[in-house]
Write a structure and sequence with these properties.
Elements lengths: L1 H42 L2 E5 L2 E6 L20 H14 L6 H16 L4
This protein binds heme C.
The site of heme C has 23 residues, from strand 1, helix 2 and helix 3.
Length: about 120
């Protein structure tokens, strides 16, 4: 009996170690998403003609300031939609962000303005 409970204890200790490790890893991934998303968002230089003006270094604030992320009737109403809007602007403007970049930018905007559950 003692042997069995000791084995169980060891197994559950191992399991909680694995769970804690997985949790820490996902939290670290989330934090690095915010950091890289922040960098991508603030450092992007968009080469586009917008409303007849040729820009070489337009950025995400050229058309809409961050006010659109906090206005009452904002379009993104959950994280998936937020990600979809980032992707839409990414594609329309030919920014060239990869899907993981889009997720990182959405994660950054979410942490800064939207606060949706992920
Ligand atoms: C050419 C102009 C333009 C630029 C530059 C632009 N966007 Fe947009 N964006 C729009 C328009 C138009 C909408 C829709 C807004 C509306 O209908 O009120 C929008 C909406 C959004 C939304 C949804 C806002 C909401 O209501 O919740 C997000 C998020 C967003 N853009 C992210 C970005 C990011 C990130 C960048 C930089 C890569 C970017 N946008 C650059 C035109 C632009």
């Amino acid at each position: 009996m003692i042997v069995i409970s000791r084995m169980l204890l060891t197994a559950s200790a191992k399991l909680s170690f694995i769970l804690i490790a997985a949790l820490t890893a996902s939290m670290a991934a989330y934090a690095s998403d915010i950091e890289s998303g922040k960098e991508l968002y603030h450092e992007v230089e968009i080469n586009q003609t917008i409303n007849g003006v040729n820009y070489e270094n337009a950025n995400c604030d050229t058309c809409h300031s961050s006010d659109v992320f906090i206005r009452e009737n904002r379009l993104a109403t959950n994280f998936k939609k937020l990600e979809a809007f980032v992707e839409r602007c990414n594609t329309n403007l030919d920014v060239g962000w990869f899907p993981e970049d889009v997720t990182a930018v959405a994660t950054y905007l979410n942490s800064e303005y939207y606060n949706f559950a992920k």
